[in-house]
Amino acid sequence: MLKIILISHGPFCVGLLKTLNMIVGNTTVSAIPLNEGEDPNQYRQKLEREVSKNSNGDQVLVFCDLKGGTPYNTAAYLSNRYKINIVTGMNLPMLIAVITDFDSNPDINFAIKVVENTNNQGISVITPRDIGGHKNEKLSIDKSR
User: How many angstroms separate the CA atoms of 139 and 145, rounded?
Assistant: First the structure.
């Protein structure tokens, strides 16, 4: 079984998880935020408690907001003791792709391939020319009220 954990500076991972669950339905994904002013050792213990729930040898896939910060460094430290793979730069399209494909193939190598697929990273640059160049685009708001 594969365990998925979201980690971030502040409540970003919690909000991302709530949005993910709203879109795809309830998941078994968990979120462990580093709260402002939280001691890094306390955060390590909190993350280790969650990771150790899979101590029966299962793989853990950790999605992190930013490479090099305390959440990432904590997961990297714990990867010396647990089977942890870390994905940095997490975003909603990436998570939706992994979760929706995960049901059909709950393998960590498959999940990593899904993440690495650039079509699932959700990053696009949209220029005015791409959307027709109209300055006053109409929003889809119900004006019948």
Answer: 15
pLDDT, mean of each 10-residue run, the chain (145 residues)? 91 98 93 97 97 78 94 95 91 90 74 77 68 55 50
For residue 9, the cross-strand partners are: 34
Handedness of CA 104, 29, 77, 118 (dihedral sign): positive
Residue pair 71/77 in contact by the 8 Å Cβ criterion? no
Query: Does pTM top 0.85 for this prediction?
Result: no
Give Dmax over CA atoms of the chain in angstroms: 60
For the beta carbon of residue 75, count every other beta carbon within 10 angstroms. Answer: 26
Determine the 3-state secondary structure of 122 from DSSP. coil
Cα three-residue angle 34-112-81, rounded to 5 degrees: 55
Residues near 54 by beta carbon (within 8 Å), at least 6 away in sequence = 1, 3, 60, 82
Q: DSSP letter at 137?
A: P
Indicate the SS3 state at residue 30.
Answer: strand
Terminal C-alpha separation, the chain: 50
- Taking the C-alpha atoms of residue 97 and residue 76, their distance in angstroms, rounded to an integer, is 24
